[in-house]
């Protein structure tokens, strides 16, 4: 039945699709990378591509940042021009583009608790008569769980419990739940492939799918994002992170474009 758990969401990432990577409803995935590598841009490009119902918990980025990024991705306009128009109250020309994504909603609580997330999900259902097809948690360490902060072991236990919670959320709502996360210190510069063991807290047990992202900056300042599928219960995976698909990052309009025939 269309809409049942297991249905893959529309994805702009053809390289990942060639590696049998799908973002299936009813499943939980994790995307891990160093700071400033492109986790949020990856999630936003995915969220905007298919025009499916989305609830995006943007704890790491504020409303102005996400609004200008989303507008630039949708229109192809230079993000600097979009920001200037937003600040000078000349933003109305973009409302037609944004209104077509009317069931994509973003929440900007910097430290949401589990009760907050559940309340926002119930509110979404009340307004739209359905749960989102995609739920993005950006990022998992910003969510206040039930395990208090403490030692490294407590930190890992808390992350495991949060993964279990988000996995249950995916099954109950029928959404694909995509959470963003950090990596261990030796991979935090984002310049080398990140293996499964490089995910911070070693929380690889619960997610159905784990992707890691590293970047390559050329002599002209251009950026390529390399995305490795280090765990994939439904298809190919390389835990070393050395097999990846590649995407050109356009810093003008925030779009990611497939680079074909890469590993």
Can I get a quick summary?
It is built from 7 helices and 9 strands. The protein is of the alpha/beta class.
Overall description:
This protein is of the alpha/beta class and 263 residues long. The chain has helices at 14-18, 39-49, 63-75, 79-87, 95-99, 114-128, 152-173, and strands spanning 28-33, 54-58, 104-107, 134-138, 176-181, 209-217, 223-232, 244-250, 255-259. Strand 4 (134-138), helix 7 (152-173) and strand 5 (176-181) form a beta-alpha-beta unit. The radius of gyration is 18 Å and the shape is globular.
Topology of helices and strands:
Layout: H1 14-18, E1 28-33, H2 39-49, E2 54-58, H3 63-75, H4 79-87, H5 95-99, E3 104-107, H6 114-128, E4 134-138, H7 152-173, E5 176-181, E6 209-217, E7 223-232, E8 244-250, E9 255-259
Parallel strand pairs: 1-5, 1-6, 2-3, 2-4, 4-5
Antiparallel strand pairs: 6-7, 7-8, 8-9
Helix pairs in contact: 2-3, 3-4
């Amino acid at each position: 039945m269309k809409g049942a758990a297991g249905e893959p969401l529309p994805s702009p990432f053809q390289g990942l699709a060639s590696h049998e990577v799908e973002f299936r409803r009813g499943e939980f995935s994790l995307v891990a990378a160093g700071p400033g590598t492109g986790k949020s841009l990856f999630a936003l490009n995915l969220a905007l591509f298919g025009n499916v119902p989305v609830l995006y918990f943007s704890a790491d980025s504020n409303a102005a940042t996400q609004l200008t990024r989303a507008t630039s991705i949708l229109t192809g306009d230079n993000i600097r021009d979009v920001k200037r128009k937003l600040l000078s109250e000349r933003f109305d020309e973009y409302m037609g583009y944004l209104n077509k994504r009317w069931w994509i909603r973003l929440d900007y609580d910097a430290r949401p608790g589990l009760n907050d997330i559940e309340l926002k999900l119930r509110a979404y259902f009340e307004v739209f008569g359905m749960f989102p097809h995609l739920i993005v948690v950006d990022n998992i360490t910003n969510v206040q769980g039930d395990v208090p902060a403490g030692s490294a072991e407590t930190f890992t236990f808390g992350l495991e419990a949060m993964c279990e919670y988000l996995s249950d959320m995916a099954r109950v709502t029928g959404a694909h739940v995509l959470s963003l996360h950090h990596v261990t210190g030796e991979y935090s510069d984002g310049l080398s492939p990140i293996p499964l063991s490089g995910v911070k807290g070693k929380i690889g047990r619960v997610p159905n799918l784990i992707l890691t992202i590293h970047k390559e900056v050329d002599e002209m300042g251009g950026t390529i994002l390399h995305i490795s599928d280090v765990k994939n219960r439904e298809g190919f995976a390389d835990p070393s992170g050395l097999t990846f698909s590649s995407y050109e990052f356009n810093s003008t309009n925030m779009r990611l474009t497939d680079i074909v025939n890469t590993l």
